[in-house]
Specification:
Xyl_isomerase-like_sf, 9 helices, 41% helix, 8-stranded parallel β-barrel, isomerase, 8 strands, alpha/beta
């Protein structure tokens, strides 16, 4: 098993100012980091990659799509723009040495029609992700698609929907990234959903129900860790926690003592349950 820390804990600005944080992440004992790709200019990431290599930290990447990049828009120009945007995020991932680009980018975060996804929207997403997966394959990168809860996304908002989606994309470089925060809201049983997804899961984010320190809230951690063992998962386990530094997460009160405390306690909790 390899252990990672999602850099969104420190907010959306990912640049050289985080170098001391990367040093602390390494010192605490993480094997790597999740780097959010908001800046899709590959040149932005060369210095960051150099620092990761100096520290011996591996890297996987995440990205999202907002209202200006919507893969299920009725506008063909918007859909084409979104595919190009995701290919640029893959180019940045290549600079960083990532083998996975993850996130809920099969549709736009926070964009709703007031209705469930239509068959046409579903097909637009399938076709778009299939093209992006072809490009990812050429870079030896695998997509890790994520479902979000019903308040953030409507194309896929539970495990069954995302499993169906990935199966219909039917591409060896399109897998699932599983996030316990959204599963804790949407699933009847998180462990059963993980077992159903099985080897489609290529990355796991462990996130508490309030986005604070894993093990300090009400997620069914016993069920989660049992499922990880049941599916014989042996890849990346990442802590995804947010703070007031990330406005889009809508966190308005302090949820933990410090970032360092969260990392130390969270990593110890996870290792004690997966050893």
């Amino acid at each position: 098993m390899k252990y990672s820390m999602n850099l969104l804990l420190w907010g959306p600005q990912i640049d050289d100012s985080l170098f001391p944080t990367l040093e602390l992440i390494k010192e605490i004992g993480f094997d790597g980091v999740e780097v959010p790709i908001f800046n899709t200019n590959p040149a932005h990431w060369f210095n960051f990659r150099k620092k990761l290599d100096e520290l011996g930290l591996a890297c996987e990447t995440d990205t999202i799509c907002g209202p200006s990049e919507h893969l299920i828009s009725p506008d063909p120009a918007m859909r084409r723009h979104t595919i190009d945007h995701l290919k640029s995020a893959l180019d940045c991932s290549l600079v960083l040495g990532a083998t996975k680009l993850m996130g809920p980018y099969h549709s736009a975060l926070g964009v709703f029609t007031g209705q469930p996804a239509t068959p046409e929207e579903w097909q637009w997403a399938i076709e778009g992700i299939r093209e992006v997966a072809d490009y990812a394959e050429s870079l030896d990168i695998t997509l890790g698609l994520e479902y979000l809860n019903r308040f953030e996304l409507y194309l896929t908002s539970c495990g069954d929907e995302l499993i169906r989606f990935v199966d219909e994309v039917n591409h060896p470089h399109c897998k699932i990234m599983f996030d316990t925060f959204h599963a804790n809201i949407e699933e009847k049983n998180i462990g059963d959903t993980m077992r159903k997804a099985g080897d489609r899961i290529s990355f796991i984010q462990l996130s508490e129900n309030d986005r604070s320190t894993p093990g300090k809230g009400n997620v069914d951690w016993e069920g989660v860790f049992k499922a990880i063992k049941d599916i014989r998962y042996d890849g990346w386990i990442s802590i995804e926690a947010f703070s007031q530094k990330l406005p889009v997460a809508n966190i308005w009160r302090k949820m933990f003592e410090s970032e360092e405390q969260l990392m130390r306690d969270g990593l110890a909790f996870i290792k004690s349950n997966l050893s």
